[in-house]
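Task 17 of the worksheet. Students: predict the tertiary structure of the chain below and write it out as structure tokens. Keep your answer in the requested format; marks are given for formatting as well as content.
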Amino acid sequence: MENANLEKLSFEQALKKLETIVEKLSGSDTDLDDMLALYADGIKYLKQCQSKLSEAEAKIKILSEELPGKAEEM
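Model answer:
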């Protein structure tokens, strides 16, 4: 999958793709070459999920700082 298309995926979409890959890797029907390709794709989806979570955390931090009395550190 191209990086541009990957970046367009929502967190939920990327997580679903990652879950599908994990299920395939857990099966015994997959040969080594396919497993390596799936693993590489899984890493891409994992990075996308982590990126989306980091963005959400940053937004929450900014919003929390705007609260009167400032929220406690997360």
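Marker's comment: The mean pLDDT is 88. Residues 3-65 form a domain with the Helix Hairpins fold (CATH 1.10.287).
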